[in-house]
Design goal:
single chain, alpha/beta, Carbamate kinase, 2 domains, 9 helices, globular
Length: 309
């Protein structure tokens, strides 16, 4: 099978952990131990999040005031290289020496007229007091929004339209390489009025980009790996139930939260509906069982209705 595995932020940094290189490597090792178990007989593509890493680079850049901070598209490119390097090394230590790897900087086109640019909603970077956030917004032209009792910068999160490197990704897969790409939803780019490609101060949703990647690669399976074993209704309540299998129409009726499970469900439903193949939402530690059809929430147009565990 051709499989796209989208690693959530917990693959790199667990909630509350200091963002050290050692902690990130330890978490990636957990992910690669599972991925290594499904390599045999399959073609693998790995996508990943990068939100905390971009936030840290932004903070480090802000501390050096002699030059302007690098824009988000450049920071995204930096983190794709850093995270890809660690994944390659940790997975390479588990597989045969002859298995080839490639990490691709991945440009993803967005539409300049996407309505997301008129309503920035994606929080990035650290939290601030209201006064600090308002001061920074005035100085830097940021949009800000509440985050609990604090405030954060928010940027646009436009939909991905096209993955520019899709052809070399296919070529590498056909030669037997494991490919790491589309990190953090890819590097957001658009064409300007003169037809020149340029970077954009935006963040593309990682799961929506992974679904587009899997669709354009004609993948057999999309695995959205996160920190829960399945998609749940009434999550965190005594009445919570894990969803075992669902048609996209049924999943979309359930109204998952936009800030957590919502984008994962949307991405899984779009991939299943556009391709007729299966997408699975499940735990990072269950990737082997997910590929075997034994774990996670499976979303497919092949079976109507919805069933619970």
């Amino acid at each position: 099978m051709r499989i796209v595995v989208a690693l959530g932020g917990n693959a790199l940094l667990r909630r509350g952990e200091p963002m050290t290189a050692d902690n990130q490597r330890a978490n990636i090792r957990i992910a690669t131990e599972q991925i290594a178990k499904v390599y045999s007989g399959n073609q693998l593509v790995i996508a990943h999040g990068n939100g905390p890493q971009v936030g840290l680079l932004s903070l480090q850049a802000a501390a050096y005031t002699q030059v302007s901070a690098y824009p988000l598209d450049v920071l995204g490119a930096e983190t794709e290289g850093m995270i890809g390097y660690i994944i390659e090394q940790e997975l390479g230590n588990l597989l045969d020496f002859e298995v080839p790897f490639a990490t691709l900087l991945t440009q993803v086109e967005v539409d300049a007229n996407d309505p997301a640019f008129q309503a920035p909603s994606k929080p990035i970077g650290p939290v601030y007091t209201k006064a600090e956030a308002e001061k920074l917004a005035a100085e830097k032209g940021w949009a800000i929004a509440p985050d609990g009792d604090k405030f954060r910068r928010v940027v646009a999160s436009p939909r991905p339209k096209r993955i520019f490197e899709i052809r070399p990704i296919k070529w590498l897969l056909e030669k037997g390489s494991i490919v790491i790409c589309a990190g953090g939803g890819g590097i957001p780019t658009m064409y300007d009025a003169s037809g020149k490609l340029q970077g954009v101060e935006a963040v593309i949703d990682k799961d929506l980009c992974s679904a587009l990647l899997a669709e354009q690669l004609e993948s057999d399976l999309l695995v959205i790996a996160t920190d829960v074993s399945a998609a749940f209704i009434d999550f965190g309540k005594p009445t919570q139930k894990a969803i075992a299998q669902a048609h996209p129409d049924e999943m979309e009726k359930l109204g998952f939260a936009a800030g957590s499970m919502g984008p994962k469900v949307q991405a899984a439903c779009e991939f299943a509906r556009h391709t007729g193949k299966t997408a699975v939402i499940g735990s990072l530690s269950d990737i082997e069982a997910i590929v075997q059809g034994k774990a996670g929430t499976r979303i497919s147009t092949a079976t109507p209705g919805i069933t619970y565990l």
